Amino acid sequence: MSQTVLILDFGGQYKELIARRVRECKVYSEIKPGDIAIDEIRKINPIGIILTGGPNSVYLEDSLHCDKELFSLGIPVLGICYGTQLLAFSVGGTVSPCPVSEYGKTKMRVDNTSALYSGMETEQIGLMSHTDQITVLPEGFRSIASTEYCPNASIENKKRKLYGVQFHPEVESTPNGTEIIRNFLYNVCGAVGDYDLKNLEAKLIEDVRKKVKDEHVLLALSGGVDSSVCAALLSKAIPGQLHCVFVDHGLMRKNEGDEVEKAFSNKNLHFIRVNAKDRFLMALKGITSPEQKRKIIGREFVKVFEEESKKLPHVKFLAQGTIYPDVIESGNSKAATIKSHHNVGGLPESMKFKGLVEPLRSLFKDEVRILGRQLGLTKEYVDRQPFPGPGLGVRIIGEITEEKLEILQNADYIFRYEMKKHRIKADQFFAVLTDTRSVGVVGDFRTYDYTVALRAVKTSDFMTCEYVPVPHKALGVMSSRIVNEVCGVGRVVYDITGKPPATIEWE
Ligand code: XMP
Fold this sequence. Notes:
By secondary structure, this protein is α/β, with parallel strands linked by helices. It is built from 14 helices and 18 strands. The radius of gyration is 26 Å and the shape is globular.
């Protein structure tokens, strides 16, 4: 069992980033709600606790607080932004609105005799974003960093191992932020750095074996990174006991179904590819509403999967590629449904299994990719960009037909090829087949063909995004290749909308 650092969530945007930074420092981290019970903390027995930022003011009645006993457990605490204000407020300090609010990269002077800044220059940059600050320090505390307008930009009570930073060490705009987190972990919490993915792989395999024993396991393999890494891990953990059902709904990118099959051909598992394109196209015939399309694809997927699972009555466990952000999200989600996302995870209760196997539940996406590489999946495979469960079904506007599917697959293939060739960096990029046809001229003939839209975005969380300014020269090449090589396309446009207000996918 690795040492654990608890991240307590007070509603800030960066909780996942904090947890990832801690793991990058080779210390295991877990995120829990800010008002977690003290007994639960004792059970987890963390070597340190980090309090996240949050949108409220600690002195307001409805702001989220933690149990004050947390500060007397003898466990080191690091408060970040709202977290530092909460720490100070809870142990007798005063927090008030700032005379001058600070936003953005801010110069700080730090006291490098403190364990938090040990080995660092006294001049540092920190990302500030606050309208409140600590105005009177609690007893036993001292200031260990200041900015022009914030005298207590960082605080310390060495004896009680309580620390706070008003700035955000977890973001890239604080250049030495990871160093500060590492100092907290190693100089204050006594971390030994026992979290690494090599050891974790062995532990995950052992856990699966303990749970599953000699029973058989069924996995819905979508071809996405999470379910693929899950399959690779399980085939190593329980060779010969894993059955992967890959429902090829025909809405994959060009050649993708074959690529998925190839990636698993040398693994020790029972790979079942169901070619269900005709069935999906039939169910989608005449449907134009985006939500209806999503629902039909989801429903049909479950039906096919159920049918296949009935052919394997000896299977007792269901495996899913659930990862840590899914766990955090489902625990705290109050967000409105913008689109009904379809993932292979959402299987019906009616399917009776003895248990669920979710070996990636504690991992972030980047860790899943590293594990995938460790398990022998190729870099191209694990580094693929996200692809929605309903596939090209939500990238064909209007009714989905076989002809439109082929047009989009070919246009998308060229676009992705040229993006790579021109070395254009984007987190997600794809083509969309709009339902608009327009008039053109080829030779002496009038044409009336579809318009393809190209979309490339930069994003870190997929909650918001900016469009990528693809150079016009590259766009020119893409456009000319698509209209010349893909029959049925007469015009190409580039989508320059950010999210919000547009979503990343068109439907
Ligand atoms: P939107 O379009 O909501 O997309 O801005 C955000 C991210 O989610 C992906 N996406 C999906 N992923 N099932 C998925 O697993 C889905 O149904 C789905 N719909 C959208 C989208 O590609 C983008 O990365």
